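Let us practice reading a record.
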Amino acid sequence: MTTKRKKTVHTTFPAISFDKVMFFHKIRIEKGYSAFECSFMIGKHNFLIRDAENPLKKTLIDPEDSLVLAKIFGLKLYNPPCNPIDYYKLDVTFSIVARKKMQWEIVFANDEIKPIRRLTIIEEDKEIELPTTSFLSTYDDVQEHFKKLIAEGYFNSARTALDILKKYRESDEFGPDFHPRYLIQNIRYYLNKKSGEPILNDSRTNQFSRRLYFKPFDFEISSSNELISKAFINHGINTFQKAGSWVSSLTYRRNQDKKNEFALFEELCGTCSTKHALLKRLADENGNHELKLMLGLFKMDGNNTPAFKDLLKEHDLPYIPEAHNYLRVSNYIMDFTGIGINETKFELDILKEIEIQADQITDFKVQFHREYLAQWIEDNKIPYSLDELWAIREECIGMLTLK
């Protein structure tokens, strides 16, 4: 093995964090899991473990990541023994070895540690497959089971990689010692738009920032005799996803008559209420009643809506409970308002939500919102009347419309 350009760096690393990284490194090598496979199953980014094992980076395996790894490896205990040392003093000699891979030679320089410990870690190739005694099955058998899950609607709800692995391990065909190598390859195949079958989407994460896999909600618009469906077809739009993209592209602006079911077609603009009510009506016309129209009250603040930050500060308000309409299918949100709302982050700020019908976006929505605000003012001793707070809220919405 040829070594080039050696260089030594003196650094420190929190001892408990370093011990945890090395603890999982040892286990994954013993069980035959590559750094990429572990990172993929954690669901954050595909080089998380590789970066965590690099002593010159500050990437850590957090408690939630530890729990995921423990479930992948089937561990009951997943923390190394307590270490009385706060920080390790490390002398890290890094160099480039064969095939342009990084190697780290680590020496623990703490006086308390005798004899001096040494470790050598070589950066793994992304696609490396380590030998394992776990049950691998075959790629084809794993894919056959994957197809069954798709057909049964398993991916109509958003799933983490760990969720899918658990589903496999619960089946008699694969069992609790099933290794996810071919499962990962199949997930990637069903995401690949060039050389696979792009049935799944991974554009979302859950509240722990873990990547989700799901089959996007879609259907062909076939009810050409129904008025809303016919209007979309006349615009050259024949699927729900295309309808959602068209609605999202329309200017964000209040309609002259929110009760007019065709307001978006006539005015080429809309808000969260009229846009999502139209899509709900389209889904209902085509028999897709699992799509729900939601009315949610969320904390509208300077973080999720930066345009309002100065105005809220001016009125000494941490946030205003704002009413928002969006769609839910299975366990995830779809938002076609077209103003750049991140559904995952938005969900974290929801105070209350209910399902409504398309004809409840006018008077019912306003009444529901005002009743909540009145109670919020009383509970939190807000120094504004309901009408004063409503006026501030209207000023915020006006700024959003202008934007």
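A brief commentary: The mean pLDDT is 92.
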